[in-house]
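Propose amino acids for all 310 sites.
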């Protein structure tokens, strides 16, 4: 795997993928070098079987400029990015693809096709985003949600955001994911609605409304990540110091948290959208090859988990 500058956590995910069959993946509008090369490299590693959806001439020109051989890849010709998004979603709906991958179109264009009430990929779940992060200073892969889709999630939204992340963590091999529900403080107060949501989510987990995980919150970030900080505050928690998932109170907090981990703690982040009929691989032009491959690998594991438990 190229660009191996991380801690090896992503490489462990890749090792898990080696014994699995690659997943047919509709790649929407891969008309820039980073978008096309990410899909092709994931294919070369046996993670996905890309179906390239976009203007054939543009894809060919991009491939020629990047020195990529497209002879072994299927191309579905479309006139523009909106059509690429719609066609890629259609390939998923018709079961020709089991994953959807963002190319060089805007995220809003792709998500508009995904959430379309006619021909989209909606389910009964709220759609949410996760950053799957390899942080050099943390001892395992850490999932941060939701920093990209739900701006001010309600309590009911947070139930789905949490369950989406828990299901993903389980597909990555975590037996009983630990979820830290973040707020600015660790005490429940009506002055901070995020703390009330956190307390309610914990009780909902006790009642079986969220399953498969251990929840604790509200927890300030230091108490979530550091067992010592939690004990100093008198917090005795299975989650403190060892969370698999950080559930942010809103999009701004989640987005700032993930990006500061990337740029200050030198973390790599893989991006996925969950809660649709299939996992959606969201990559950015700023992503390293390593992060793009990791996004595909995480999605592959999620897709195989869906095969065994739809």
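Proposal:
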């Amino acid at each position: 795997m190229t660009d191996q500058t991380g801690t090896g956590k992503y490489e462990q995910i890749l090792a898990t993928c080696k014994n699995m069959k690659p997943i047919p993946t509709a790649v929407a509008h891969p008309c820039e070098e980073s978008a096309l090369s990410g899909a092709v490299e994931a294919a070369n590693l046996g993670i996905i079987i890309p179906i390239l959806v976009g203007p054939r001439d543009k894809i060919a020109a991009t491939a020629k400029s990047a020195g990529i051989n497209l002879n072994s890849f299927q191309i579905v010709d479309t006139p523009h990015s909106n059509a690429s998004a719609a066609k890629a979603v259609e390939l998923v709906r018709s079961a020709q693809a089991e994953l959807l991958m963002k190319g060089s179109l805007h995220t809003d264009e792709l998500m508009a096709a995904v959430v379309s009430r006619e021909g989209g990929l909606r389910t009964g779940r709220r759609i949410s985003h996760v950053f799957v992060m390899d942080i050099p200073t943390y001892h395992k892969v850490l999932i941060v949600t939701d920093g990209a889709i739900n701006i001010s999630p309600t309590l009911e939204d947070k139930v789905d955001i949490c369950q989406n992340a828990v299901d993903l963590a389980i597909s990555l091999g975590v037996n009983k994911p630990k979820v830290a529900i973040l707020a600015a403080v660790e005490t429940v107060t009506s002055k901070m609605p995020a703390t009330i949501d956190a307390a309610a989510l914990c009780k909902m987990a006790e009642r079986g409304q969220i399953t498969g995980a251990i929840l604790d919150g509200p927890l300030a970030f230091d108490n979530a990540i550091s067992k010592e900080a939690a004990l100093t505050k008198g917090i005795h928690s299975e989650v403190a110091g060892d969370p698999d998932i950080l559930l942010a109170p809103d999009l701004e907090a989640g987005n700032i948290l993930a990006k500061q981990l990337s740029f200050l703690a030198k973390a790599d982040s893989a991006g996925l959208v969950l809660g649709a009929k299939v996992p959606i691989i969201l990559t950015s032009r700023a992503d390293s090859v390593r992060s793009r491959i990791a996004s595909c690998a995480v999605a592959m594991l999620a897709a195989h988990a869906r095969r065994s438990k739809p």
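The chain has a mean pLDDT of 92. The CA atoms of residues 180 and 192 lie 17 Å apart.
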